[in-house]
Design goal:
- By secondary structure, the protein is mainly alpha-helical.
- Helix content is 80%, strand content 0%.
- α1 runs antiparallel to α7.
Length: 245
């Protein structure tokens, strides 16, 4: 169990680091014309495929981060978890069809999903003592992501897509920073929490079912004991009546 808890943040952190380096050294550092192209179009121009691989690696890193946060019982259930998973799937899907209109639509949907997940995590982290330390940085990142979405909406519609690539890269950088911050805090928790604390905070479905089975078994045993005692009491009463007669 401990090996899995430490493996998840390691996989997520390594994936985010490698993907960030590949994005910076690839299409993100190309000529200024790339700033007028979407991320999908820019990655399609990369003949080496580094940008496409980086987008797929980002999606896989999000999946590893989700698994690690669930393993330590992070307050992620509900819409934050769903939006993060949707963003991971969108990034991976955009990497499969680079440079197509479908890729652009899916990538924007992924950026919106991750921005919404970051915004929802702020309140969840603020209400959990183990994650409260990263709530304020997440709040600033959520504000940046929200501003990036507003600028992206303006550039995509009345702005005639001028510098749309710059806006998308900036929004993606903010979301990668949020994922990296969550990964760093997850690493600290995964290495510091003892197994008993992890089990106490996780509250998984399997544990709930096991507890229900144990409780049900105890109730059945109690009912059987009561039934046996009642039967024995009835037998003693019947014996006493027969003896009197």
């Amino acid at each position: 169990m401990r090996h899995l808890r430490t493996l998840y943040p390691l996989a997520a952190g390594s994936g985010l680091l490698i993907a960030s380096i590949m994005l910076v050294s690839g299409p993100a550092s190309a000529s200024r014309d790339v700033l007028d192209l979407t991320i999908g179009q820019a990655t399609a121009l990369d003949q080496g495929g580094a940008g496409v691989f980086a987008m797929a690696l980002l999606g896989l890193s999000c999946v590893a981060l989700l698994a690690g946060m669930r393993a330590v019982g992070a307050p992620l259930s509900g819409w934050p978890e769903r939006l993060t998973a949707a963003g991971a799937g969108a990034l991976a899907c955009a990497a499969v069809f680079p440079g197509t209109p479908f890729s652009d639509i899916v990538l924007v949907a992924g950026l919106m999903s991750l921005a919404g997940a970051v915004a929802l995590m702020v309140r969840r982290f603020a209400g959990d003592e183990r994650w409260r330390a990263v709530a304020r940085p997440f709040e600033w990142l959520a504000l940046g992501a929200g501003g990036g979405l507003a600028v992206l909406t303006y550039v995509a519609l009345p702005g005639h897509r001028v510098m749309i690539g710059l806006v998308e890269w900036a929004l993606l950088a903010i979301e990668i920073a949020a994922l990296a911050l969550a990964t760093a805090h997850l690493t600290r928790l995964a290495w510091s929490l003892p197994p008993v604390e992890v089990l106490r905070h996780a509250g998984t479905y399997v544990q709930a079912q096991a507890l229900e089975m144990i409780t049900g078994g105890r109730r059945a045993a109690t009912a059987m004991t009561v039934t046996t005692e009642n039967a024995a009491s009835g037998g003693r009463t019947a014996t006493a009546l027969l003896t009197r007669h």
